[in-house]
Write a structure and sequence with these properties.
By secondary structure, this protein is α/β, with parallel strands linked by helices. It has a single domain, classed as Rossmann fold. The chain is 28% helix and 24% strand. Helix 1 links the parallel strand 1 and strand 2 (35-40). The protein starts with 6 loop residues before the first strand and ends with a helix.
């Protein structure tokens, strides 16, 4: 399957923070037929590429194990004063509210989880 027909999985993180870059590293290292891993350091790609369904991998503070989150209303609200304050949760809620997002699957990874263990479990959630 070529990349244009592949399912896109958006991997979010901050490459400068050890506790927030695991999804970006997974995007570099994991290969699954039919899946294209898209590295994102901001939610901008979600605004540029509209999809009714999204699959996202991101590190989540406070998780004890990998969890799949399908209800974005469970995401914490952030105080949004300017466009620079728009985080991933805010963008997802905006897309949902405007009817541009119907289904989302966020694979939340604990910040301190072993990367090799994460990769094995991620495969199970994606295939």
């Amino acid at each position: 399957m070529n990349a244009t027909n592949a399912t896109k999985v958006y991997c979010f993180g901050n490459p400068d923070r050890i506790d927030d870059r695991v999804a970006l590293e997974i995007a570099d290292e994991l290969r699954i037929d039919g899946i294209e891993f898209v590295k994102c350091t901001s939610p901008d790609p979600l605004l540029l590429n509209h999809h009714e369904e999204l699959t996202i991998i991101d590190a989540v503070k406070g998780l004890k194990k990998i969890q799949v989150i399908r209800d974005i209303d469970r995401l914490n609200d952030t105080k949004t004063l300017t466009m620079h304050d728009f985080d991933l949760g805010t963008i997802l809620k905006l897309l949902k509210e405007t009817g541009q997002l119907k289904n989302v699957k966020i694979i939340g990874i604990p910040c301190n989880m072993n990367k090799e263990e994460v990769k094995k479990k991620i495969i199970g959630f994606l295939v």
